[in-house]
User: Fold this.
Amino acid sequence: MARLETLPALAERAPVAHGAIIEGDWWLAWSYDPGLLILAGLMVACYLRGLRRWPVRTHSHPWWRTALFLAGMATLVLAVESPIDRLGEHHFTLHMVQHELLMMVAVPLILLGAPTTPMLRGLPRWLRDALVRPVAASPAAHRVGRVLTHPAVGISAISVVMWFWHLAPGWYERALLDARIHELEHASFLGAGMLFWWNVIDPHPLRSRIPHLARIFYVFAGAVPKDALAATIVFSEGMLYPSYLTAAPIFPLTWQQDQALGGLIMWIGGDAVHVIAVIAIFLVWYRRMRIEDDAAEAIPSLEPR
Assistant:
């Protein structure tokens, strides 16, 4: 079994990003970022507090939404705090697993949890009065919100972020070596993921401006740039990320295998989530059509017999 203390090449640069590599087996290499853990804890506490302070509900909030929100937050924390994060310094493949968990799993689950109303109700009253209400009443904030939630912005944001961090010269390496840039990378993934999935999921009570069935085409359009990037990585004949040449591998993979496998995870993993999203969109649309048809049939005809 490979052990982290046998990897001097990476241990020399690890203090820049994450602190000294701990001794022991790789599954013990957890990261402990107090800032992230405190923020995640506050978000969960605010969400649950908001549910308790929401006795009379104008729209339903079933238990499964709470479960999905908590699963999304857990996925986010595990992607950044678990050994996946540290192993990403040794293997491009594990770094891609982390990115997919953040953008393609954590973000959709959080949005499916419909966090808007619980989070707002869970905030302290002084914060709602001082910040949320003025922003909500501001015409400028509404204009900015409409721009940010435009479908073209969602597709552009996730595409630009992915291409920039993976192919812009030097930036992938900087994210590996500098903790602050690495955190910026993760924040950009989460932000772009929110802008993209917002138009697919409808985080109640907010609504996407895309007609429901048309979201299938939106999902496919968002997948194309990501698939093109993944194909570029998979079929590249050269080394795209030189840091992995100096990082001793944990698992028995050559850099060519590691790079290709990471690209395949981006490609196949992302497409799998897109396919699930398309199926879900169709099923929700079909269910709504059936409900509308049943309601129409239940209305007595007003035509004379």
